[in-house]
Amino acid sequence: MPTCYLGVGSNVGNRRKFIKLAIQMINALPQTRVIKVSKAIQTLPVGGPAGQNKFLNAALKISTKSSPLKLLKQLKNIENKLGRTKTVRFGPRCIDLDILLYADKVVKDNALKIPHPRMFSRDFVIQPLLEVI
């Protein structure tokens, strides 16, 4: 199964609980397994409206037989089940799941870009990612 790396973050409500639930739900996806989880780090929000709470961010190493676009759909479904609603860009969210890397694939789709286009400029992504690679 291909190895993938995901970013996970939360800055609303019980952030640790949302991250833990998201990891459990990812691990329960068909033909998908969480292999390794980084420590969660607390960071200031980047962009978006002022006054947001700090984020907890982590990274996951997973294996999956889902295609990149199918995995994206599954992750968005998990976000919805956990109560994420779209407000403003980079606004507060109970859970945020991003595909950072998917095996050696490069994807340039309207809905998905792999590698994640902003990951290399964000320490809150790179620091946890380095723990699971």
In short:
With 133 residues, the chain is an alpha+beta fold. It contains 3 helices and 7 strands.
Description:
This protein is of the alpha+beta class and 133 residues long. It has one domain: Alpha-Beta Plaits. It is built from 3 helices and 7 strands, in the order βαβββαβββα. It has helices at 15-27, 68-81, 123-132, and strands at 3-10, 32-37, 41-43, 55-64, 96-102, 107-108, 113-114. The strands form 2 sheets. Strands 1, 2, 3, 4 and 5 form a 5-stranded antiparallel sheet that branches. The protein has a two-stranded antiparallel sheet with strand order 6-7. It starts with a strand and ends with a helix. The model has no long low-confidence stretch (mean pLDDT 93).
One letter per element, helices H and strands E, the order comes to: EHEEEHEEEH
Question: How does the overall form come out from the CA principal axes?
Answer: globular
Oligomer: single chain
* Strand-pairing-aware structural class: alpha+beta
Give the N-terminus to C-terminus distance in angstroms: 16 Å
In the residues, how many domains can be counted? 1
Low-confidence stretches: none
In CATH terms, what is the architecture? Answer: 2-Layer Sandwich
CATH names the topology as Alpha-Beta Plaits
